[in-house]
Amino acid sequence: MPKTLQNKLSRYASIALGFVLTLALGAGANAKNFPLQVEVLSAESYHASGPSEKALEGCTLRDIDAYCFGSSTYMVHNMMVQENGGKPLSILCMAYRWSNCTSLPIDETFPARWEGRGIAIQYTDKNGKKRKQVYQIVGGDVQAEQ
User: Fold this and answer.
1) How many CB atoms lie within 10 A of CB 59?
2) Contacts of 68 (CB under 8 A, 6+ apart)
3) Which domain holds residue 123?
4) Is residue 8 located within the same domain as residue 44?
């Protein structure tokens, strides 16, 4: 085999190995960032309406509620999830124009982690892109669940 062809094959093999290692390390990093696994037990979605004012008192840029973003009607996604065989939690998010809020498929498991006022769940959207959505805990103390 000519030396130049052998060098090219060696270079391509190195690139392929680097790509595989990058994917493997990325999967490990994801497990650290989202250490929990939650299973969706049930899901329902419905339309709701809220105030029509664009800026409400007490709303900040960190609020994840749809009414803080000037929506007069929005979609609410309410789900019952269970973390690693623990007690079920009721969670919800409100979808507005720029949110990643969606109802997740029943009987599927997703990586998750606790965040300030709820639980962040990572999922893959219909275009194959990884997304993260923070869902609010309904009727429970988030700190007690952590």
Assistant:
1) 15
2) 56, 59, 60
3) 35-145
4) no
